[in-house]
Amino acid sequence: MAVATPPYASDALAEGTVDAVVIGGGAAGLNGALILARSRRSVVVIDSGSPRNAPADAVHGLLALDGTPPSEILRRGREQVRQYGGHVIHGEVVSAESAAPSADGDLRFTVTLADGRPITARRILVATGLTDVLPEVPGLAEHWGHSVVHCPYCHGWEVRDEPIGILATGPASIGHAYLFRQLTEDLTYFTHGTDLDEDSRARFAARDIRIVDTPVTEVVNDEDGALAGVRLADGQVVARRVLAVAAQLQARTQGLEGLGLPVQDLPKGRGFASGTAGTTEVPGVWVAGNVTDLVAQVGASAAAGALAGADINSTLATADTDAALQRIAEASPQAATR
Questions:
Q1: Is the pTM of this model over 0.85?
Q2: DSSP assignment string, 278-303
Q3: What is the chain's alpha carbon radius of gyration, rounded to the nearest angstrom?
Q4: Among 26-40, 111-125, 263-277, the least confident range
Q5: pLDDT tens by residue, 197-212
Q6: What percent of the residues of the chain are helix, what percent strand, and what percent coil, each to the nearest 5?
């Protein structure tokens, strides 16, 4: 599921080589850019304008900003990056790859936008986020982010005490059920063709979680268009007001193939592999947020972006010092050895 947000005014593209390009304008990317801009680094954020949480009415579980619309958090974030000299470009990256190093040996990358404009950068932070891949059940996608939810911490309080159904997608849905049982006394688990072992069935029974093994064929709405339940393969309709789905999570990797970033398969999906502070096996490239931590909420993604931004600035500071020493050595070999 990808929903575009309204376009906003793009900044002019910075000329020459910039210290860092941030690919992705969500919480991770903007917070990384903020750290870099406040460190007086030239930084350009490329934002495709389709954040994962766009369908949601509000962000929850984020201290001091709980209940704030996602679009408002991003608007403030762009404004804050810009006030420190950062640039935010509304656009899409179609390619990113290593380029010839600078004369002093520092890394260089070329990032190309869909309109053909190239950007040369010393470092790259990838924060493109992910896409939620929902089961192909008719009527499910239209309620995504409202009465079809994925995260008990992001949406749980808002759906408390409602008749909730877990539409199983695999083993991860079993743990999902226990978390949503905390929120309602009326929980039904639709196995939907997935396996449910006898131990889990016993545990569900102990928690009064109803199990339905008949496959779900469609989501049913009431006369006002609100989610009213699900229709089963035998024609029966089970009334539900909310469905929780552990969607498969797929990192947004389009246009980034040229960087050669390693990926990893995880129980809930597929994302880029990363190390401390978002480092990768590719020198000069960092990753942060949901593109590598598939289950991170907004706060955790923003924190990861900050850590990556600080680490990028640190490596740039080292590179700047190395270059300064090299210039001295080239100008006066004897002076460099004193």
A1: yes
A2: GB-SSTTEEE-GGGTSTT--HHHHHH
A3: 23
A4: 263-277
A5: 999 999 999 999 999 9
A6: 30, 30, 40
